Request: fold
Amino acid sequence: MTTNNQDLVIGIDVGGTEIKAGFLRGSEIISARRWPTEREKGPAHAVNQVLLAAKEMHREFPEATAIGVVVPGVVNSKAGIAEYSENIGWRDIPFGKLVNEASGLPVGFGHDVRAGGVAESMYGAGKGYKNSFFIPIGTGIAGAMVIDGELFDDPYCGEIGHLDVVSGYMCACGIVGCLESISTGPSIVRIYNEQSDIKLSDSSEVLKAAKGGDALAAKVWQASVDAIAFTLTAYINILAPEIIIVGGGVSKAGRDLLDPIESYFDRRLTFQKRPKLVIAELGDHAGMIGSGIFGLRARG
Ligand SMILES: [Zn+2]
Reply:
């Protein structure tokens, strides 16, 4: 890795609650800032918050040679357009053009989860592997596919959270049965609370209760993990990754998440090439670091 001033870049990761911005050199975060997204004030306001972050970061760090911005939802990175975000509420925002006008810098624009996958692939748990799958499990579930060393970047790809795992629960997408309806952090908590007198507020508390002998908690955790493992075996059978990198809030469970997935693989994988299964290394910074990579690539 070269480390000269040509590598200095601004990376911006836009979430539903906050905008995380970093002045970066590769995976090194030289300085970080946060802005509220304030999506409750409407999508136009949220767009302005992103442009404000871009402007202020460029003013503060004029040495940056490029800027990257990544957002959730349906993202057309080649056209530089955020087509749709249910979470923030915007449609067809030409961020590539707007951020360029706001900052004067070359802009790399992309999807937040796919940015995280590229960052893990280059600097994190996927370093050295050509075929990886990054799956953050948080308030939603999506995946980033690196195939033969290249990110697959179709606007609609990677929506593994909406595979039918026959959960019996309604998903935010409007149909019953999706992985997201049973295995996200909020889903795990919701399913437990529906059946229990004790009300918990985080998936880590469900896991803690399960480990403390709460049979309902153990059942809910196991069902959630089995659904994740099922979808991963689907991915393994189709794309044969060398490594699967699990991230997001639920991945803080560590071995308590990975071990039952490995047990499922023991039962369901026979002749297949078995991938390594690991926890992500870059944590909450993966999207921001990935946006910086997109920025440098746009600069060329
Ligand atoms: Zn769904």
